Amino acid sequence: MSFLGRWAVISIITLVIIYVAQGVYVTSLYESFMSSVIIGLLNASIPYLINMFTFSQSIFTLVAFSLLANSFVLYLMDTLNVGIQAESLNAIILTAVMISIFTWFTTLSMNQKLILKS
Question: Would the pTM count as exceeding 0.90?
Answer without folding.
Answer: no
